[in-house]
Amino acid sequence: MMSETTGNMDTPDMYDRLRLLKQYHHIAIVGLSADPYRPSHFVAIYLQAEGYDIIPINPRYAGKTILGKPVYASLAEAKAAGEQIEIVDIFRKAEDTPQFVAEAVQVGAKVLWLQLGVRNEETGKQAREAGLIFVQDRCVKMEHARFFGGLHTIGLNTGVILSRKL
Length: 166
What we know:
Helices cover 32% and strands 20% of the residues. By secondary structure, the chain is α/β, with parallel strands linked by helices.
């Protein structure tokens, strides 16, 4: 796997991120909010619309549903309920991310992904040592949209390319 250097840490290059998004379709979203104006919620809507299976993880909403999916308190609880988890997408503060490495490995995840603006070198080191692919400071939705033509003001592919304003 190739990598791009970001600070002191390597992250998979764009071709590998494309491969990850084509290969894995079960994404646990840690910190998914029920508030439709929060970035995590919009990412989940987008991923569902693109055919991904989202698994909401948020202890605050455990036992409820978000976007028609049951919300779990933890990755382990989701796995115990029969959910398949391939990518763990984390919407949490950088200092809160190391705790998810061992749990991601335990549930069989392949990728630990820290959202745009979230960077933690220690989490990356632990994740790689545990055999996980580690991506940080990237948005899953934005990466998908960039690769699959979904970049637009509202996140949808209009199919129209113009060089002038409408």
